[in-house]
Amino acid sequence: MGVTVNDFVINVATANGTGSQSSNLILLNALFEMGVPVSGKNLFPSNISGLPTWYIIRASDQGYQAPGDKTDIQILMNPDTWFKDIEKTESGSIIIYNQNVKLPVDRDDCLVFGLPMTKLARGINAKMAKMIANMYYVGVIQHLIKIDQDALERAVNRQFKGKASAVEVNLKAIEEGRLMAMEGITWDCPHVVEAREKKEGTFLIDGNEAAALGSIYGGVTMLSWYPITPSSSIAEGIIQWLPELRDTEEGDSTCAVVQAEDELAAAGMVLGAGWAGGRGMTCTSGPGISLMSEFIGLAYFAEVPGVIWDVNRVGPSTGLPTRTQQGDLNMLREASHGDTEHIVLIPGTVEECFEFGWKAFDYSDRFQTLVFGFSDLDLGMNNWVCSGFEYPDTPIDRGKILRTEEQMAAVENYGRYRDVDGDGIPYRTLPGSGLDPILYRGTGHDEDGVYSEDPEVYRKLMMRLKKKIFNARQHLPEPIIREEPQKDVGIIYMGSMENTIQEIDDMVESTGLKVSQCRVRAIPLHPDVESFIERHDRIIVLEINRDGQLYGVLRKELPIDLVPKIHSVAYSDGMPPRARIYADLILETLEEATQ
Question: What is the pLDDT of residues 326-337, one digit of tens each?
Answer without folding.
Answer: 999 999 999 999
